[in-house]
Amino acid sequence: MTCALCSADTPLSDYPVTGGPDGATAAICDTCLSQIEAELDANHWRCLSSSMWSEDVPVQVLAARLLTRLSEHDWARDLSDQLWLDDDTRAWADNVAAASQHKDSNGATLNQGDNVVLIKDLPVKGAGFTAKRGTAVRGISLVADNPEHIEGRVEGQRIVILTQFVKKK
Asked: For the segment 40-53, what is each residue's pLDDT rounded down to a tens digit?
């Protein structure tokens, strides 16, 4: 199989597409996964011009969300304008914040891909280090079934973080 987003012929991971049906996933490669969870390399995502037309609805939703994150680029805005989604799929793509009740320590809504800062030193169980206060966590993922948890990379480790210990950048 190939990556649902970039068509790379490499090992794939199921990426949860939140805010819609339970268990909705897209099979994506490690390159796409690492970029979704961090800063996006705009050139890599030009592949969305084909994947946004996928028949797989979670892939359409993921493509629409990525195009929104890339909206500072003219080509991404053009693709986003061309993308037609039925009303339910558009609502799913647009409702990341509405579907989740993930809130930071100040009550600000957290969305997939947001950047946050730790407000407290956090010992990371099983990893043998402490994530220091002030550490930036870029491109967070929301834990779909628990609004008090987010995931992000700290010191190269993917960890689960309680939302009460972060603030949105």
From this structure: 899 999 999 999 99
